[in-house]
């Protein structure tokens, strides 16, 4: 195996090891050491397999490291988001690009399940991985239980 450069999210971290996942390929890399990483860190980095067995990996270079802020907003989805959800079937996901960087994901959800769906999005590491793929640093989750709308905004700041 050879070195690999990419964007990784830290899925597990202990004092002496860590696990990172490539956000583009979902490949998992168990690190033989932990260079100060924390769960949910996003790295632009190069990793390489440890010789001789190449079972574990090590971080060779870190170009950048950041945390993605995932926020449970008390704001309601925008009118545009509510309109998008109104045209969608329950369970459908509507994606719209933001002007500039990021995306807005709108889900039509049964009213009684909106809070649970929001909690799932807030806790899911895939939310952080998606933010890393979109090169954003903030995710804002908005909801309207009465309308059955969940809005996930991937924002550059």
From TrEMBL:
<protein>
    <submittedName>
        <fullName>DUF5812 family protein</fullName>
    </submittedName>
</protein>
<dbReference type="InterPro" id="IPR043850">
    <property type="entry name" value="DUF5812"/>
</dbReference>
<dbReference type="Pfam" id="PF19129">
    <property type="entry name" value="DUF5812"/>
</dbReference>
